[in-house]
Amino acid sequence: MAAEDLPIVLYHYVHSPYARRIVWYLNLRKIPYSQCLQPPIMPRPDVAQLGVAYRRIPLLAIGRDVYLDTRLILQKLEALYPASAAHPSLSAATAEGRALHGGLLSAWTNDAGGLFWNAVSLIPAGMPGTNDPAFLADRAEMMGLPRDGPSPISAEARAGRRPDALCEIAEAMALLESTLLDGGEKSWLLGTERPTLVDIEAVFVFAWLAAMPGALPKDTMGPAAFPRFYGWMARFIKTVEAAEKENGEAAMVKGDEAARMVLGSAFAEPEGSMDASHPVVVAEGLQKGDRVKMWPTDSGSGHKESGKLVSMSLKEIVVEAQAKEGLSVRIHAPRHGYKVKKDVDTSSNL
Ligand SMILES: N[C@@H](CCC(=O)N[C@@H](CS)C(=O)NCC(=O)O)C(=O)O
């Protein structure tokens, strides 16, 4: 069965800037999907019943394959849903554009110390929900810290980092203003007629901040300071809102229904194989079928997938894990930012 015929389920919550990347993408390409809304803090039993330990948002299931991390999710959607008149591609047509969205921009925005992490420090003190002790304890756990210790994202801690974070974000706005948005009338960063993945990669952190009153100082970092940048961001928001309206809201499914959809499906991809020359495969002596643990290294590292290693390449790690009722799912993570190790605990599933 072609991937296009399988159900897509997005597990997310609406305020997640990472989830917005996927919602924008799906709407711009008019790819139908269902959404299973999740609480903003753990536990997430809807995800657990798939046999998935990952604690971050979003996750995307295509049939019985579950994809972690928006960087891999976007690549997979591009590969599994080839461009057609009904679903136009968002890939860049040029090598420079593909280099930007194929890794350079996503490292700039996502990796430790990148734009997303600085943006977290700019969340205004009074932002609803962010001072809730349960939220702070949850996010401390996500960062591998004691739940009851001083929070690295309390309003006070954020205020301490604010000046440096403002510099990082201002520098990033100035870079776009003076390079990709410089010169001539340009709607999108690559000068294309429609937005591309480059726009999605570059805009998501800024769009999140711009929607939080008080996050950015208007005088020094507003439209007067960066007119082309703000014009581009406003165009992008307008375009994705129009696409969302045109497609209608994605069907909402509860956790049990979502699990039935996922577990009752075929796999979206063939099983894949092990790249025998992969440096990690060689160093760890990994083989297909090994029982392994797999986890992200930047945050949420305490939540480790546990299952059977299915395939590994320079781009991706795939582990088969036990879901409910004796069924399994294949969990895909990008190699960048993830670790896989042989599991010495033989009581783990599969
Ligand atoms: N690199 C990941 C980052 C995802 C991420 O950090 N998501 C945030 C929400 S925006 C998260 O999961 N926060 C903790 C949580 O919701 O449990 C990706 O691209 O998907």
TrEMBL record:
Pfam family, one: GST_N_3
Domain DUF7962 residue range list: 119-245
Superkingdom of source: Eukaryota
Stretches that traverse the bilayer: none
InterPro entries reported in the protein's UniProt record: DUF7962, Glutathione-S-Trfase_C_sf, Glutathione_S-Trfase_N, Thioredoxin-like_sf
Signal sequence bounds: none
Protein name according to UniProt: Glutathione s-transferase
Organism: Apiospora kogelbergensis
